[in-house]
């Protein structure tokens, strides 16, 4: 049976984590810097364990005011420390819960910068490897996050998005653009099916773009996150596509 991982950003102070958890297989948990607290990290890990959902760290820039979505130019040594501290914080909670930290997925501006900049991606990948080489890195399909992690022999999972639009080069449309987000659940579902079944996505200009779809992201802070998750879950089951962590 064909399978796909569904991941969601969680522990970011929103009220829908519990409603989303039954429909996903991986949770990316905020590690206090762009959102969350040690308490929400603990609570979200416990919720994930209850639902047999894989736990991942979601490190971002220390910028709660802008939800980690403003790019920050840091020396690579500072970036390494920033990422390491967040992963280690969640790693310790996982040890307490007697589970393994499954993956790391950078957040927001950090994710976008690493996707297009090899040095940033390499620093993140090295931080992960130095903590635990068995941790998987989730990164944008076709981006430097995947290629740099592969150079370090880290396991990777190529990510695509259910609720974002794409440019012709396979990058995500900037959130500054009006058409960056998909807010129609039917459009979202069709994009997800295309990405899984055809390994392509249609860009905003109508061009088919080749991608590798191993995990699909649903943003927990989206207006229709729970509705999207339910619809995607229902549709994938109709197509006999199993939802499970990579």
Polypeptide structure, described:
The protein is an alpha/beta fold. The chain has a single domain (3-163, 214-243), classed as Glycoside hydrolase/deacetylase (TIM Barrel, Alpha-Beta Barrel), CATH 3.20.20. Helix content is 39%, strand content 17%. It is built from 8 helices and 10 strands. The chain has helices at residues 17-20, 38-50, 76-96, 108-116, 118-131, 144-151, 185-198, 225-238, and strands at residues 3-10, 26-30, 54-58, 103-104, 136-140, 156-161, 200-202, 208-210, 215-218, 242-243. The chain has a 7-stranded parallel barrel with strand order 1-2-3-4-5-6-9, surrounded by 5 helices. A two-stranded antiparallel ribbon has the order 7-8. Helix 4 crosses helix 5. The longest helix is centred in the middle third of the chain and has 21 residues, at 76-96. The chain starts with a strand and ends with a strand. The mean pLDDT is 95.
| Structure class | alpha/beta
**Average pLDDT number:** 95
- CATH topology value: TIM Barrel
**Under the CATH scheme, which architecture would be assigned?**
Alpha-Beta Barrel
Judging from the principal axes of the Cα atoms, what is the shape?
Answer: globular
| CATH class category | Alpha Beta
The CA-CA distance between the termini, in Å, is 14 Å
Topology order in helix (H) and strand (E) letters: EHEHEHEHHEHEHEEEHE
- Outline the biggest β-sheet: 7 strands, parallel, barrel
Residue share in helix: 25-40%
Total number of distinct structural domains:
1
Total number of helices: 8
- Tell me the total number of β-strands: 10
Given as residue ranges, the uncertain stretches (5+ residues, pLDDT < 50) are: none
| Strand percentage | 15-25%
- CATH homology superfamily: Glycoside hydrolase/deacetylase
- From the alpha carbons, calculate the radius of gyration and give it in angstroms: 17 Å
Biggest sheet: strands side by side, in what order? 1-2-3-4-5-6-9
